[in-house]
Fold these 2 entries.
Entry 1:
Amino acid sequence: MTITGKRIVLAVTGSIAAYKAVELLRLLTRAGLEVRVIQTAASRKFIGEMSFQALSGHSVATELFDTSSQAVFNHIELATADLMIVAPATAGTIGKMAAGIADNLLLSTYLAMDGPVMVCPSMNNRMWNHAAVRENIETLSRRGVIVIEPGTGELACGATGAGRMAEPDQILKRIERLFGPGDLERVRVLVTAGGTREPIDAVRYITNRSSGRMGFALAEAAYERGADVTVIAANCDLARKDGIGYFDVETVPELETALRREFENCDVLLMAAAVSDYKVSDTRPTGKLERKEINDLQLIQTRDIVSSLQGNGNGKLKVGFSAEYGEDNRERARLKLEEKGLSMIIFNDISRDDIGFDSTRNEITIMIPGHEDIFVEKTSKRNCAERVLDQVVSLLH
Ligand code: C5P
């Protein structure tokens, strides 16, 4: 696939990671892309215009209203590009993008863009985790902006955590995928996400801490790679993406019904939902149980849904997830791989606070029969999803 000739606007904001934008620009031009650079005033304090001008072969656009006679840029013209990439994107620019504020050339260009927009955030880990930034990122993502999650590690400010701008080679890969036929083109992917709720009475239920983030990350990654994606969402309070089909369910039986119906028409099942293993034997659909009645509650096992679906034999891939408490329980995942007739299982340790359930990050081991285990060190759920899909693609071939 060639991306040669695509017109890109690379917008650089004021972060120490501006130096990575120079490297990104080098990769983009080397890949044959036609790049115009916008720099905010703050970004020029980190890296001067000359570096970007030399590598792009064009002068750098900085002013919204340029009165000089040679002015060749304006936001409307820039916004006709095939893609706009904001890298690095500071918390301030992300916030203004989400709010629709257009007080500089970058922001005006963003609002005028018709084509896709990518943002590559870069900031201190506490800023990245601040509720305001999280909400702004969700808003942009919901509106179709492609967010390239920052990596985790040592940050320029001395702190350690999430906030390092994604590496330029990763960003280039995402651009290639955006313009090319994805490696999951025409593949029908079904994802289950979230945690089921089994009612006890009219007001109480049994559930778990699954947020659905891993499943949603898988769905979004598969969609961007060209797949036809359907999500069965069990109690997921997360932003939805246009282009992906969602069915909301609450209980295990509801999830099972939706899954049996949709499974017929899928090529790959990614079973990321945390399905309750138990339900209450005599649910009280109306009213509230009294304290003494709760003592008499009986739990019965639910059916293991993924085991009961015909997988491998008919060419469908069944991918399971095994959330285990502690590294010592890793081998339980391998047993489930076999017992449930899965093509692949993803082990993750839920004893840690920093990864897994209800977190934006994960650390996973991908297990495939007859293959060496693949360990994915702590990273965003989106990056974990991409690694899982890499394996799905190679199994499909
Ligand atoms: O709960 P457990 O660790 O056994 O889950 C492993 C896999 O089996 C997961 O992919 C989960 O979605 C699936 N599962 C299921 N039906 C259940 C319990 C789990 O399909 N009742």
Note: The mean pLDDT is 92.
Entry 2:
Amino acid sequence: MALGKADFERARAHMVETQIAGRGVRDPRLLDAMRQVPREAFVAEGYEELAFEDAPLTIGEGQTISQPYVVALMMEAAETKVGDVALEVGAGSGYAAAVLGRLVARVFAIERHRSLAEEARRRLKRLGCDNIELRCGDGTRGWPEAAPFDVILVSAGAPKVPEALKEQLVSGGRLIIPVGRHDGHQRLLKITRCGAADSLTTDLGAVSFVPLVGEQA
Ligand code: SAH
């Protein structure tokens, strides 16, 4: 039997309760955003019931929609504020951008695979996420015309931190990025820009992302 709107709402509430709040994420705005964004709309047709699994899921082109908890971990670390302008590098299905769009004023999102970018753009439009601008391109160079950003999230594992991204942060801005030399094994870093040349790095733990591919990666 096909699942209805109420079933999906229940499934999202359960996902937030067990996987997100249950693991210590407390920010009520973030928990609300993750209850509201219809994660089932960001997976391939026929896979809706798997959308709430505690794992990443394939979205085509060898890429994945991140595990819900990893999305929450990055958003919480980003300390988003209502008026913030944010950039996401590696938009994939558009799910993390949609959650981010509920937490900040404006989101710019970049995806390097054209087919994924087009699908994500259509999806976000259909869902009425009108504070998100998504383009196809290499996100390692950031989005200079829209910079500076209060928050930058990188949803793919980088061998090193792209300088362009650090430079596109406001003073006090937060860059959340998985960094590591080996595919699938990274440390999630939070880099807070403290001034023109200074930054503070915090290690948030081990994560596993698909690789960031680009000029500055
Ligand atoms: N945030 C996404 C997760 C997508 S996985 C979601 O919620 O669905 C990471 C994505 O990063 C992949 O789709 C991959 O194609 C993309 N990517 C890798 N390198 C990139 C780059 N240099 N610029 C933009 N996107 C990139």
Note: The longest helix spans residues 5-20.
